[in-house]
């Protein structure tokens, strides 16, 4: 599994992706709503390559997170016949190692039922979309279309390991390399811990000394940290511990990502 970005000739993000390499094909997992844009983009550069680019409509993807995710993933990889077969892919994120299960859509529910029954000792739980969103924010994972967009450079997202400065020519490489070698970016991904009577809505402006420095792009109530959020914050307001003004009232403390790293260090 590899992660990366598609960029424009100006070095801006078209979409981020996860690439799963299987025996006879590669699968691209893209942000919702970007599939046709990226398919058309790739078709322009396919040239004479013997490659067919197709949308995949028969798969469902589930993520495994937690202290025993590796055991659950090994079990998923062994289940056959009683509801299909899983392709299990591991990856390292800011919240630790996790696993993705790629399942046939028609067989997904039967597979999950069998898997959960066989993994009862691991105490696996299927969580809600809201709980998954809290985990994403705690892990400091910015989402395309929510926390960043086609106005941003890859380096603004805090995923330097997903950008290559040595590979051969790709669209936007010159600009991406220039940003890296000649001074970096003005905005940085940051966590936010909110104080005030009520949390701000996603998209609320953040300020420092009366000047705008960014927006709260994702907001959730964490059982561990209270009301928290994500945002791309201008360097002048991005130092951890900075107290930002929230439009409409309240304030937000800037913290390093992921939030979970603070717990490991004894803070919270």
CATH fold-level name of the domain at 59-134? Alpha-Beta Plaits
Indicate the CATH architecture of the domain at 59-134. 2-Layer Sandwich
Q: Total helix count?
A: 6
Annotation, overall tally of beta strands: 13
Structural class: alpha+beta
User: What would the average pLDDT be, to the nearest integer?
Assistant: 87
Strand content: 25-35%
Order of helices and strands: EEEHEHEEHHHEEEEEEEH
| Large-scale geometry | globular
Largest sheet: 7 strands, antiparallel
Helix content class: 10-25%
Give the radius of gyration.
Answer: 20 Å
Biggest β-sheet: strands ordered side by side in the sheet: 9-8-12-13-7-11-10
Distance between the termini: 32 Å
Structure description:
- Strands 9-8-12-13-7-11-10 form a 7-stranded antiparallel beta sheet, covered by helices on one side. The protein has a 3-stranded antiparallel beta sheet with strand order 1-2-3, with no helix packed on it. Strands 4-6-5 form a 3-stranded antiparallel beta sheet, covered by helices on one side.
- It is globular.
- The protein has 268 residues and is of the alpha+beta class.
- It is built from 6 helices and 13 strands.
- It has a domain at 59-134: Alpha-Beta Plaits.
- It has helices at 35-44, 69-78, 108-118, 129-138, 173-181, 259-264; strands at residues 2-7, 13-21, 26-29, 59-64, 87-93, 96-104, 187-195, 204-208, 211-216, 218-222, 226-234, 243-246, 251-255.
- Helix content is 21%, strand content 31%.
């Amino acid at each position: 599994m590899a992660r990366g970005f598609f960029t424009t000739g100006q070095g801006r993000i078209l979409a981020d992706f996860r690439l799963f390499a299987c025996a006879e094909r590669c699968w691209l997992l893209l942000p919702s709503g970007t599939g046709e844009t990226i398919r058309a983009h790739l078709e322009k550069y396919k040239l004479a390559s013997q490659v067919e680019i197709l949308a995949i409509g028969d798969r469902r993807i589930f993520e495994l997170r937690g202290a025993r995710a590796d055991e659950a993933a090994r079990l998923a990889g062994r289940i056959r016949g009683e509801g299909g077969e899983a392709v299990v892919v591991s990856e390292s994120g800011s919240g630790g190692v996790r696993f993705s299960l790629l399942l046939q859509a028609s067989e997904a529910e039967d597979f999950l039922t069998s898997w959960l029954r066989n993994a009862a000792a691991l105490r696996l739980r299927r969580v809600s979309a809201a709980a998954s969103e809290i985990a994403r924010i705690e892990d400091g994972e910015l989402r395309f279309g929510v926390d960043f967009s086609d106005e941003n450079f890859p380096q603004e997202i805090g995923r330097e390991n997903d950008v290559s400065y040595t590979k051969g020519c790709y669209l936007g490489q010159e600009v991406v390399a220039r940003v890296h070698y000649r001074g970096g970016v003005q905005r940085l991904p940051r966590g936010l811990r909110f104080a005030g009577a009520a949390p701000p809505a996603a998209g609320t402006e953040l300020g420092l000394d009366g000047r705008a420095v960014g927006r709260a792009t994702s907001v959730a109530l964490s059982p561990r940290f209270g009301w928290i959020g994500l945002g791309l914050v201008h360097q002048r307001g991005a130092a951890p511990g900075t107290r930002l003004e929230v439009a409409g009232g309240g304030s937000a403390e800037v913290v390093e990502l992921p939030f979970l790293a603070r717990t490991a260090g004894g803070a919270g």
